[in-house]
Amino acid sequence: MLVLFEGEFGPRQTQRFIEEVLHVGHWSWDLDSGVMQWSRGLMDLLGIEPETVRPCYAEFEKCIHAEDRMAQGDIEQMLRSSIAVDREFRIINSSGRIRWVSLKAEPIGAVAASPNRAAGICYDITRHREELQLLQRGELRLKTIGKLTTSLFWIARPDGSLSEFLNLPDDMRWLTMMRPTWEQLIHEGDNEAFVAAWRHAIESRQDLSVEHRLRASDGTFATYWTKAVPWISPNGQIREWIGISRNLSESMRRFSSTGRAMTGTQMRSARAILNWSIDRLSQESGIRPGTIRRLEDIDGALTGDQAEVFAVEKTLSDAGIEFTFYPDGKPGVRPR
Question: 149: helix, coil or strand?
Fold first, then answer.
């Protein structure tokens, strides 16, 4: 044993020093007599003043949270069967403060004989449990938010390779079974642009934004818009990417014979995004300025004048505008 302090009480002082610094306590237990010996560190951990109790399992159990207790008989049976005990539980000290403690116990006995003694160590893991609960809460929140949308939330490694999906709908559970790569999921016609977008995002440490086709379980492809942001560590390195992929094929319906026509409000908004005047839109689309003004005054769907509406919509779309029609929301418009 390494002794840190000199003198007759050097070993004891070393033990005490280690227990105080690491918030650790150790104990021994005679399984036949039931007598236990506790170190000063264990008493501090339990919030018990020395000489106030006779060390035994019953006194130890009193400090354990009622929901985390394990019967003494079960513990003894495990140790007598040469099974080590490894548990985590809450303790309540005399001040009422709750701490998380990890216990590790090893059975001790003569060769070819059932163990009749045990030795163990307890150490405070409260901070670790608090950090774990914060992480679990954050993950639960993210998964709950994910249920509000059909978008896919996922994590990628620093090099952009796919790590895991956080909220998969039932019809996409197959992704958790095969652990696919982006190359397996992205349509081969979009793979080059997808890889280039990732390369630019990683090299520049900027957000990823790319549109692509993603494979479904039945082998078909749907159009997705994917965006990801880097999680950068204090030393400037990318730790991972947090991303979202939105199914445009389901959430967006373009102008078609289904009756989901562009609205006058969308037309005005699209022109504003492009910073086009009515005359500019007229020149680009071949539709008279008066007709454009009349169409823009209509807040609802432009179901009449389909030839003129289609010409204007195509012109705006070709200029980089995307018209969106969400089943649970109002028609929208955004840059492509």
Answer: coil
Instruction: For residues 237 and 229, give the distance between their C-alpha atoms in angstroms, rounded to a whole number.
Output: 13
For CA atoms 140, 145, 150, 152, give the dihedral sign: negative
Which tens digit of pLDDT belongs to each residue from 27-57?
A: 999 998 888 999 988 888 888 888 888 898 9
Region for 275 from its dihedrals, namely left if φ exceeds 0, alpha if ψ lies in -120 to 50, beta otherwise: left
Q: Containing H/E element for 269?
A: helix 264-274
Rounded CA separation 42/103 (Å): 11
> Quick one: tokens of 251?
């959430």
Q: Which of 167, 175, 134, 132 is nearest to 149 (CA)?
A: 167
Give the SS3 label for residue 58. Answer: helix
Strands 117-124 and 152-156 come out as unpaired
d(CA 244, CA 166): 10
Q: What's the one-letter identity of residue 172?
A: M
Q: pTM of whole model > 0.90? A: no
Query: What does the pLDDT look like over 118-167, one tens digit per residue?
Result: 999 999 998 888 888 888 887 777 777 766 666 888 889 999 998 888 77
CA dist 96 → 65, 103, 130, 146, 274 (Å): 11, 20, 18, 38, 64
Q: Do residues 105 and 84 lie in contact, with contact meaning Cβ atoms separated by under 8 Å?
A: yes
DSSP secondary structure code for residue 172 in this structure: G
DSSP state of 184: H
Closest-CA residue to 75 (of 60, 63, 90) = 60
Amino acid sitting at position 39: S
User: What is the residue type of 330?
Assistant: K
Contact at 8 Å (CB) between 196 and 210? Answer: no
Q: Which of 241, 191, 242, 243 is nearest to 214 (CA)?
A: 191
Instruction: Using alpha carbons, select from 264, 241, 260 the residue that is nearest to residue 251.
Output: 260
